[in-house]
Specification:
By secondary structure, this protein is an alpha/beta fold. It is built from 11 helices and 10 strands.
Length: 255
């Protein structure tokens, strides 16, 4: 589905690259999570897929086609994109927000209405209750659900997600993580998700890619990383979820 061929990105001449000589594959239907500390290159990697950031060198392919060969606007309209701040238009209703890209693509009004209703139901926001609300009338979790619905509006096969749950309270965060995993599987999506939260990565990912200083230092299933961390850095990333799990076990076993 996605292939990085020796991709590098430098923002300033002479500075260390944000991403260096990246070779990476994302299989169709996979939910791949990029993790690492701030500045490791994970968001740059994500944004190069839909050309919000252009690579300095190398080639990126989606479905075997070089993304640099076509119109970036047309490329982005075929890829769902969800980010932490959601970015809903405050003057539009929920339905109008979800319908933004279908309207740009000149879908018929009846088709747009049907798609909006379908998507709101899919993200578990009853259309009759939510379609006419403004973003300010929604909770953070509801706004993020609308953001996911909007990203799915034109039936993309590929979803890019940049810290999509980071601003939510723990209950909504857990619910939306589970909901998105359900949608990913149900709709047979391919997803690349960026997070700094190793627990989130372990719970959601089919495969985790650990980045440091613009390079991939380990990749594998959550079980692979837990069983065989490649070095001290990966071990440190895994320490927090391990410690939290151990603390919860102790508390549950306390008399």
């Amino acid at each position: 589905m996605i292939r990085f061929h020796d991709v590098s990105k430098s923002y300033r001449r002479g500075a260390a690259p944000a991403v260096a000589q990246l070779d990476l594959r994302v299989a169709a239907g996979e939910l791949m999570v990029l993790v690492g500390q701030s500045g490791c290159g994970k968001t740059t990697t994500l944004k190069m897929i839909n050309r919000l950031i252009e690579p300095t060198s190398g080639r990126i392919e989606v479905d075997g086609r070089d993304v640099a060969a076509g119109d970036p606007v047309q490329l982005r309209r075929k890829i769902g994109y969800v980010f932490q701040s959601v970015g809903l238009f405050p003057h539009m209703t929920v339905a109008e927000n979800v319908a933004v890209v279908p309207r740009l693509l000149r879908w018929q009004s009846a088709e747009i209405r049907h798609r909006v209703e379908e998507l709101l139901a899919l993200v578990r926001l009853p259309p009759a209750q939510f379609r006419d609300r403004r973003p300010r009338e929604l909770s953070g979790g509801q706004q993020q659900r609308v953001g996911v619905a909007r990203a799915l509006a034109v039936r993309p096969a590929l979803m890019l997600m940049d810290e999509p749950f980071g601003a939510l309270d723990p209950i909504n965060r857990d619910r939306l993580q589970s909901e998105y995993r359900r949608l990913h599987d149900e709709l047979k999506l391919t997803t690349v998700l960026v997070t700094h939260d190793m627990t989130e990565a372990l719970l959601l990912a089919d495969r985790i890619v650990v980045m440091q200083a613009g390079r991939v230092i380990q990749q594998g299933t959550p079980a692979d990383l837990l069983a065989h961390p490649a070095d001290d850095y990966v071990r440190q990333l895994l320490e927090t979820p391990r410690r939290q799990a151990e603390q919860l076990e102790r508390l549950a076993g306390a008399k």
